[in-house]
Design brief:
The chain is α+β, with helices and mostly antiparallel strands and 131 residues long. The protein has one domain: 2-Layer Sandwich (Herpes Virus-1), CATH 3.30.40.210. 26% of the residues lie in helices and 18% in strands. A 3-stranded antiparallel β-sheet has the order 2-1-3. Strands 4-5 form a two-stranded antiparallel sheet. Strand 1 and strand 2 form a beta hairpin. The longest helix has 9 residues. It is found in: Nucleus.
């Protein structure tokens, strides 16, 4: 949020209160996590409706974007109903995202071209910590 401006893709308080991310329809090997916000859904759900926190990634329009911007390799899942009031959501740095299911950690980085897309859209991206 450069210059104190709210990113156009950051949900407002009203939007967060009235919208939720899709809940995964299954909990098998078809789950994927968004590499930017760590939202967890099935591959088909990302393909059909994209990522609710990252609409600028156009996952619902481009099949390759789902493959490039999500990963099946993640650790743990947390369901968050009220991210603004959840200490766990704040600790995981997902307190500004909409309610939904999130992974605790991803180990892959968002590809550089999509990191540039985040910067172009004035959206903050934090790469995963290297262990």
């Amino acid at each position: 949020m450069a210059g104190g401006k709210r990113s156009e893709y950051m949900p407002s308080e009203d939007d967060r209160a009235s919208s939720f991310a899709q809940i995964p329809t299954s909990f098998g090997h078809e789950l994927r996590a968004c590499l930017r916000c760590r939202l967890v859904k099935t591959y088909d759900q990302f393909r059909e409706s994209g990522c609710e926190n990252c609409p600028f990634l156009d996952m619902d329009k481009e099949h390759d974007n789902v493959v490039n911007c999500t990963t099946p390799n993640f650790t743990g899942i947390i369901s968050v109903m009220d991210p603004t009031r959840s200490w766990a959501a704040r600790w995981l740095r997902i307190g500004r995202f909409i309610p939904g299911c999130y992974t605790l950690a991803v180990s892959e980085e968002l590809p550089e071209e999509y990191q540039a897309l985040c910067a172009d859209n004035n959206v903050h991206y934090v790469p995963p910590k290297r262990t």
